[in-house]
Design brief:
This protein has 274 residues and is of the alpha/beta class. It is 33% helix and 16% strand. The protein has a single domain, classed as Rossmann fold (3-Layer(aba) Sandwich). It is globular, with a radius of gyration of 18 Å.
Length: 274
């Protein structure tokens, strides 16, 4: 059965009552600048009130980070009361973190490209730069509860609708899927293939098979969810997200009813040609 929403034009995508707000921006830079600006403004607003800021942060998309780092350093935004909880990390076959020197390591990326480029007097303490740990899976759900919740979860959408590495699982009910918290899991062939093409020059045989990820539960309970899509195959992903059935076979569809969510996409993704 062919799904009509995959052929929606830009106008139809925006006007046929999508299940979540879809914001079209000129290009990748505009999407990433918008994400960086929202990160910075949320932190500044909380700092002014003497409140902590808690983000769930992805490594994919990553285009927002150079703009965020520039804003922090230029505007002297104090991150001392900010927590970055990263979504996920690749694992070796023994289910331990890949080393930070691995070209796909999310820890390595964040340390090099984010934490390593922020002025030290502005940077949050190391214990506030959090990654899911395969040897301490309960830590992040407990930390989030202790901190009073997540202010914003930023992220992208995978080719099978996954957010973080919450892979599609049609065998689970919606309720069962949404109850999943931080865990170790095997990465699907679809995700390994898409990530190999997008992030690893197509080196599929060297892609990790396992990961540790925060759960869809942690994401769904964030106060705000902000998603960004910009790749060529996101054209279909965005249309299914906005118009498809809510199902554990396409996990992001289970988030579209969140009270404060939006999806930022490029004009390229909104279009069907070009």
């Amino acid at each position: 059965m062919r799904h009509a929403y995959y052929s929606y034009t830009r106008e139809e995508l925006l006007s046929n009552n999508p299940k979540l707000p879809v914001l079209v921006m000129e290009n990748n830079e505009a999407v990433f600048r918008s994400m960086a600006e929202e990160m910075a403004e949320e932190i500044k607003s909380h700092n002014e009130k003497g409140e902590k800021t808690v983000f769930i942060c992805p490594v994919g998309p990553v285009g927002q980070y150079p703009f965020f780092v520039e804003k922090v350093n230029t505007e002297k935004i104090n991150l001392k009361n900010v927590w970055f909880i990263n979504m996920d990390e690749y694992l070796e076959d023994d289910k331990k973190w890949v080393p930070e020197t691995h070209p796909l390591s999310f820890r390595g990326f964040m340390n090099r490209e984010v934490y390593g480029k922020i002025e030290k007097e502005l940077l949050m303490p190391e214990e506030q730069r959090v990654f899911p740990d395969p040897e301490n899976l309960g830590y992040i759900p407990e930390l989030i509860e202790k901190l009073g919740g997540v202010d914003i979860c930023f992220g992208g959408i995978g080719i099978n609708g996954h957010v973080a590495f919450n892979e599609a699982d049609a065998s689970m009910s919606k309720e069962e899927f949404l109850a999943q918290k931080t865990r170790v899991l095997e990465i699907t062939k679809e995700t390994r293939t898409a990530n190999a093409i997008g992030d690893f020059n197509g080196a599929l045989e060297d892609m990790p098979h396992y990961c540790v990820t925060i759960g869809i539960w942690e994401i769904a309970h964030a106060k705000k969810i902000r998603l960004g899509c910009f790749r060529n195959w996101h054209r279909a992903v965005v249309r299914r997200t906005a118009y498809g059935e809510a199902t554990s076979d396409f996990p992001v569809s289970l988030l579209t009813g969140h009270p404060d969510i939006n999806l930022k996409i490029t004009e390229f993704v909104a279009a069907l040609e070009g």
